[in-house]
Amino acid sequence: MSKVIYGGQSYECGESSILDCLTAQGVPVPSSCRSGVCQTCMMRVVEGEVPEKAKAGLKPTLAAQNYFLACSCYPENDVEVVLPEAGLGKLEARVTSVEYLNGDILGIRLKPSRLFEYKAGQFINLFKDEITARCYSLASVPALDEELFLNVRKVPSGLVSGWVFSSLKVGDAITISEASGDCFYVPGNSEQDILLIATGSGLAPLYGIIRDALLSGHQGKLSLYHGSYNTDGFYLVEELRRLAQTHPNFNYVPCISEGEAKAGYAPGMVLDIALADNPDLSGWRVFLCGNPNMVNTAKQQTFFAGASMRDIFADPF
Ligand SMILES: Cc1cc2nc3c(=O)[nH]c(=O)nc-3n(C[C@H](O)[C@H](O)[C@H](O)COP(=O)(O)OP(=O)(O)OC[C@H]3O[C@@H](n4cnc5c(N)ncnc54)[C@H](O)[C@@H]3O)c2cc1C
Hints:
3 domains; Ubiquitin-like (UB roll); six-stranded antiparallel sheet; alpha/beta; Rossmann fold; six-stranded parallel sheet; Elongation Factor Tu (Ef-tu), domain 3; binds flavin-adenine dinucleotide
């Protein structure tokens, strides 16, 4: 049975990941998504070797320096590990505004304490305390917005979103991580059509991506479909309708899956509507964010409709 050595102590790992093994013993390893996406639980192996799978998704430069993700690491031999000195750096940010975007989603604006480089649509980790963090996508655009803009949905019994809704207020200083993730607009190929599908607060990264693409002078179609059960679930509607009026290549379709459809809203499931309107996605770029079931189904279906996997970007949450 493999052992993990951390901080001079040895721990039996058994069948569990290094993250589960250490946190079960009370070792405070920061973590967030626990599924190999957010990179919050990155560690470094200083003795022994970890399986290659534990490095999936890391930049080659980090993998080459023996960094790995503790949540995806099931060691086959004894290893000694440390928390990274580097990795996604942390910094302080000040809360500059908190507003309800709809009944379930708060818009939070943050002013980072130092130069903060990011791309619209990437995510940051928001720390509730030293070891509890969750990912939130950036709806802001560096060249347009002075502050970072997050859209946080209230999750029933959610640790971090619950704290955001009950406690976060203007003036608070909080800890965030540097930005990460590959769900963002890359300039170039400006004639390419782009399909964007979201549910709930999955709109956050897409709101950033659309404004970034328009700012970059994107010429191809930008078609956004936002799904909700009813009209209460939408937000940023006026802003998106205004963008659609001023940019003929941008099309915004809010989709209602239950109840009566109203003027200005499409009736049905967001993915069905998006695919019925755009049945041939050969050559398209696709962004999918929000409910994991919708995102995973949409990944398959947009691929079957012709989009190349290389051109499909998804953040399920
Ligand atoms: C890349 C990425 C980007 C994201 N961007 C956004 C964004 O822009 N906006 C946004 O709102 N969210 C976003 N998320 C989701 C966000 O990171 C959090 O997962 C979400 O806010 C819930 O966190 P929480 O701490 O409030 O809930 P948690 O405490 O993690 O709980 C989540 C749910 O699991 C249940 N649960 C927790 N523990 C247990 C247990 N032991 N047994 C059974 N059930 C349990 C809770 O009741 C709750 O329903 C993103 C996620 C990722 C990975």
